[in-house]
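User: Could you check the structure of this?
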Amino acid sequence: MAPALTMDMSDDFSMPTKYIPSQSTKRTLLLSPPSLSSHQEKLTSVLQMHDRSATDMQMLDRLSLGLVSLPEATYDVVTVLTDADDTRRESQSLLNRDVLALLVKAMKTGAVLRSQDGQWGAAEGAEKTEAILAGLSYEQGNGFVKQDFGAQASVPLRFGKKKGVAQAAGGLDGANSGSVSLPLNNKRKSQDLSNATPAGVGFDDGVEGGEVDSDDDELIDEDALLDEEDLNRPVKIRKSIVPCAQNRWLT
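Assistant: Sure, the predicted structure tokens are below.
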């Protein structure tokens, strides 16, 4: 009996599939204090928890000295690693105002700056104040967030039946527009005041009946107030008050 033959229809070579990174992967920056450089096992354990294709690591001391630069608006998460002795003394001394300014520029809008132990910003102090002065806002349980202060939303004013206030303020623009035209700084335009005279207000310009009154009889001459007799009249001076021995005052 002839032996049975089986055909292998599979490909001899399998082409590797191209890796397409996930769009939801967040770009992460890890900041390492100098003490971790001599503890490779701790750095390795930290890197294993992150996607290496979307994670960068920089030394805090090199960043503080200006030896490295960071790209602007790149990272979604910036994490300050704990020191080798499980404290944050080294990172606290290196995270000065200039370093924080560099980190804020490297963060995207909505990015988060936090520490590995999650204690940065949990208590009030100079460290939290410096982060807020750098332009970050603290969120409990999340860290310091870079807010978008450039976006400003305009809020339209809607007026319904109460049109009396709007008309008093400047009137409605159109019958059904619903918008109000308000004068800036409570000032009226110059063209509105050029030919307008308030009712009940007059001005005395010395003109009576359209002609200038030339009668000066009612004017008072200052030189005629005192005549020669008044000028030659002696001035009476009141006697001064003199104290007596009995503590009485006599005039």
